[in-house]
Every structure is written in structure tokens, then in C-alpha cells.
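so my prof wants the structure for this chain in the C-alpha cells format not the other one, which i didnt know existed until like an hour ago. anyway here's the sequence
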Amino acid sequence: MDDDDDLYGGYTATSSSFNPAPNDDEFNYDAPTAAGGPGGPMRQGTAGGRLGTAAPARPMTASNKAAGYSGGRPGTAVAGGPAVAGSKGPAPPLRKKPEDGPDVAIKEHEAKCHELLEASSRAQVDKDWVRAVETAREACKRERQLARVRENAGMGDSENLELAFATQLCLGNALEGNDQIADAMDTYTQIVKNKAFVGGGRVRVNMGNVYFNQKDYQKAIKMYRMAIDQVPANQRWLRMKITRNVAMAFIRMGQYVDAANTLGEIMDNEPDVHTGFQLVVCHYAVGDKDKMKRAFITLLKLRAYESDEPDEDGDDTAGGAGPGATRRGATADDVLGDDGLRQMMREKQLEARRKILQAAKLIGPKISANEELGYEFLLEEMHAHGYEFLANELEMEQALAHLRGRGANFEEGKRALKEFEKKEHALKARAATNLSFLYFAEGDFENAEKYADMSVESNRYDASALVNKGNCMLQRGDTEGARDCYLEAVGVEADCVDAIYNLGLVNKRLEQYQDALVNFRKVISIIPNDPEATWQLADVCELMGNMSMAIKQFDLLHARLPTDPGVLARLGALHAAAGDEAKALQCYNESHRVYPPNIPVIEWLGTYHAQQRAYEKAHEFFAFASEVKPRDTKWPLLAASCQRRAGKLADALETYKSVHARNPDNAECLRHIVNILTDLGRTSEAAEYDEKLSTAESRGAGSGGDALSAAEKQKPLSRAKLEMPEGGLPPDEESPHAPETPGRALNQSVMSDEFGMGGVLDDELLPGM
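here's what i got, hopefully its the right format
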């Protein structure tokens, strides 16, 4: 290699062509020494000898110390910066920034404006619209002041258009939230007309939303389409979002065909779960079976928020794993755990599955010749697209559908539910819970308890299963065990209304009225003004002797159910027990008006008028009772007694003879006939009936006395029902083991069946389902 080609030639020379004078101020160095310190040679690099190790006549070109931190003389380096040639001391201080001037004022106004914008935004999030409007107006005021400061300083060309746009848009949103629609539309219009704002036309979406909320859908669609024209073509996702608003407006207008076409366009470009679900609904409204199927399949193909891993719904935890087990084979999700993003994705996944299941339930009965074929098609598609979990849910819904409505097929429902015994653990437990409820409702308590035990064994933390178990135990007389089950159900699910209500019934049966009172009050706190719980609460108050509180609760129930005859009858009984006969009469009259065939109410009214010597009025009630119960001789006897006391002996005689014709051995009837004939002077006919009376008395038929006199001597009522005359009610009217309730006493009830109780309110257990 030639010397000319040597890139490092000349660097190994013992002398250098650059050799400043020793007294040169610009290169004033100490002579290096052999030890590398002052006066000795110093190594200048690591180039293997190419760099000179002794170059006293040449300035140093590298250092092993950081720049700016050299400890050399003032001529070598300045503290805090690199060496400056010829410097004799530290650098002069920086000039102070002027404390006043247009730039400072502009920055202060901008900072205050941003602060007000953030305050208004926070108020909007908190739904404090008044404060949001106030701060937004202040922000706009500050922005205008900022513009004037710029203009006065001759800096009008540097106007902050983004800040002006943000303040006006914030004000418009705040006004809209505060229901100042006209002012909000004026603000939006000013933004749209200002051509200096980049993208200001998109505010037409806000204007369209205002028209949408005002149900002016034509103008809303117009604004949405004008906003779409302002969106660049490369922002397809935004265009499709606005297009979905157009589709929603078509749906509200009932134009389902146009809505379906618009949603189909979105699904072709930017498909999502919500749009797919709305498309299924539109085709359902139109009634197009084929399009319903295609739209549902498209919804399944999205696989929205679904993982590609096969066991997404499986149990993530494995027993017996030690501390080091998570290190081996752990995925990123295992390490991160339930982070915010994973939680959000899980919520979106559940929402997507809920939409798919809703769509399947909606179109299942409509897409085929019958419901069974429709569900079979949907199940096949769900399994084909990897939605086994949702397919099982749909099968469960199909099984429960057999148990609902007027055309309920319990046998088919039981057969479908029994199929789940062969499936996975969770589905088996749910099916057992429903089967237990079904058998309990049918009165098959043995099978009900069998499946209740199965569901509890499968999932001890299922409140519905524990409620069913408690119901079965109570049915076979294990009151304490039933109470324990209800308590455990409440421990698992604190707001389980079925368990709390049934626990109150058990405590009432055990005469633990204070605990029952607490239970029913808790039900009312969960479901305010619940009729069943209010009834039981009033009944417990009466059992505890707190009549005023019982009347208050029944008054509340009457306000909620003004036409329930059982509530009115119960109020009448309580007022009569309290000695307020005027209110009692009012309540009983209203109950009789709403439901005339109520025999206890009829008897109370007839007895009351008889006590008031209003025999003709009393006769009307007893005569009506004889029509309701034509086989019972008590009511015509009472009606005839009223006629006799009113002086209508001929009419009374005809009534007694009609009773005698149906019941010839009734001694009481014969005795009254003999007395009336004697009073009328018809002695021969009286003697004939007297012989019949002797024969009847010898047979021991009937009892002495007047039926009306016996009725008048009775107390008007006891707890929850009237005191009947001697002999009591006929067998089909007695209810000795339970207090009277609207459902049981009247054989009907206008109360809503909120808990599946069939209208019977007393001692009927709420099943867990």
C-alpha cells in the first residue's frame, strides 16, 4: 500500500506541523509527563499506536472526562458548558424576559380559557348543566378577549381558530344539555357558517341529534347527510357512524325498508354488532324470513370481541397449582390479570353475545314454518360459528318457552329441561332449578325436592336453588330447615326477594312477628309499594295488636289497588273492630259493589242492617245470598225472618214454604210456618204443619231459635273474617287454617302476579326460577 493511500499517515510522526508557541493564550497547556499527569505523555486514543502518545506540540483533540466538567484552568472549560476559546470567566447571565407585553397577555388568556373549558366539560360529565353553561359562556368571553388582544398587538393573523371552535362547541353542548334548544341551535349555526373553522360542518351531526330528539326525523336526516358530505372519503368509519344515525331515524319513522338498506350499506363497509342487530330487527319488522336468516348469519360471522382460543368460557383456575405454576406457560393475560382494557373488552363481548341471543329469540319463532324448525336452524348456525355457549342458552330459552303463555306445554318443557342433565355442570344446575320449580307448581313435591337437592349440590351459591329447597322442606313440615335455607339464600344474594318474602312467611308461621315485620319491610324497601308484601305487613301488624298500623298499611294498599274487594273487606273488618261502624259500612259497601258474590261481606251487610232495624234492606242482601248459594237453607231463612219482622207475613210465609218444599225436615222452617199461620188465623193449616213439626223434631232435624236473632247476637267480625251465625259457613266456604286473603277468599284478585304466585297472597311460597 502506498503512503498516499494510508489514511492515518503522518499521525505517528514525532513532531507535528502544528506546534503552537508555548505562550500562545489560545492553546495554553501544561506539558504532559511520563506518568500521564502534568509534564508527562498522555494517551490520546485506542487506535493501536496510530495516535501519538507524546504530542506536546499539538493540542488535545479528545478527553476522557465529560464535556463541561473539566477541572482545568479557566481557559480550558467553563463550568456548565464546553470549553470556550479565549474566555476569561463565566458566561454573562441570560437576559430577563419582559414581564409585560402582548405575548404574556395572550398566553394568560389562553391558559384561563383552557381552564374554563375543562371545568365546563367536567360539569357536563356530572350533569350539572347550569354550571356547564356558565363556565362555557365565560370561556367564550375569554376567547373573544384573546382575539381583541391579538388584534391590538397586530397579531391578528395568528388567531387560534381551534380554541375558538372548541369554546363555541362546548357552549352549544352545554346549552343543549340544559334544554336551551333554541340557543344551542343558534350556537351550532354560527359554527357551521364560519368558514374559517376546519371541519365545522360536522357540527351538523349535533344539529341532527337535536332534531332527532324533537322527533323531527326528516330534518335530522337532512342534517346527517349534510354532515356526511363534510367528512373526507378516507374517514370511512366516521361516515358510517353518521349513516347509522340516518338508519335510526328511518326506524323511528317506520320506514323499515329504507332503514334496512342503509344498515346493509354499513354492514358492507364497517360492520359492527349493533348495526347487525338493528338490521335483524328491521327485517323482522318487514317479515322477510330469508333476509332475517342472512342478517343473523352475518352477525355471527363478525365474531365480535371473541377470542380465537377455544376455551374462552371455561374455568380459568386450576386447583393444586403452586406459586411457581403460573410462571410456566403463563400468557400475557394471566400475568396482567383483570386490567382495565381486558375488563372493557369483556364487557363488550358480553354485550355482543347478549345482542346475538336477543336476535335469536326474536326471529326464532318466525323464520320457519314452526317454532321448532326456526330454533333448530339458529342452533345449527351458532354451533357452526363457534357460539356453543349461546346455543346452550338458546336451548334453555326454548325449553322455558314451553312453560310460558296460555298455550304452555309443561310436558314438553319438562322433557326439554331433562335433556340438560347430560350437559355441562352449569347448565345442569340451571335445568334442575327450573325442574324443581315446575314440579313444585304441579304439586309433585317428591320430584321437586329431588331436583332441588340436585341443583343445590351442583351450585351451593345459587339463591334460586336454595329457595326451591326451602319450599320443599316447608311443604313437608320442616319449618326450621326451610328458614335456614331461606337465610342461606339471603346470605348468597342479599336482595333475593323470593327468599326474603318466604322467610317472612315462615317467621309469621312460627309466630316470630317482629322478624316477619323486618322481612316484609325489607321486601318493600327493595320493591316499593309491593302489594303482596304490604298485605303481609298489615296482617302481621294486626297479629301483633297494632291496629292503627294495620289500618294504615291497608289504606296504602287500597290507594295502590283501589278496586281490590279483598282489601276493602279487610279494611271494613278492621274499622268495625275499632268501633268505627261508619267507615266499616263504607268499606263493605264498596267491596260489595266491586265483587257482589262475596258471601262474608253480604252477611256482614245484612246483619248490620238487621241490627239497625232496616229489615227491608237486610232482606235484599240475604235474598241475594240465597241466589249465590241456592242449596244453603240458611240464607232464605234469614230473608224470611227479615220479611216477618218487617210485617210482611204473607211474603214471609211464601218464602218459608219454598224452603220447606226443598227441605221438608227443617224444624226451624216448620216452626215459623206454624207461628205465621196462627197469627193469620189459619188454624187448620197451622195444625197440619204442627204435625209435620212434631215429626221433624222427633227425628232431631234442625235447631230451635230464629236464624236472624242468632246472627244479630254474633260479634260483627273477628280477625280477617266475619263471625258467622250458628252453624258457620258451608263447608266450601270455610278456611280455618289461614287468614282470609283477596285471592283465596274471593277466588279472584286484581293484584298483579309479580312473583308468579297466581294471585294467592297468603302462605304461598315464591318459587326460585
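also thought this was worth mentioning. Residues 126 and 382 are 42 Å apart (CA to CA).
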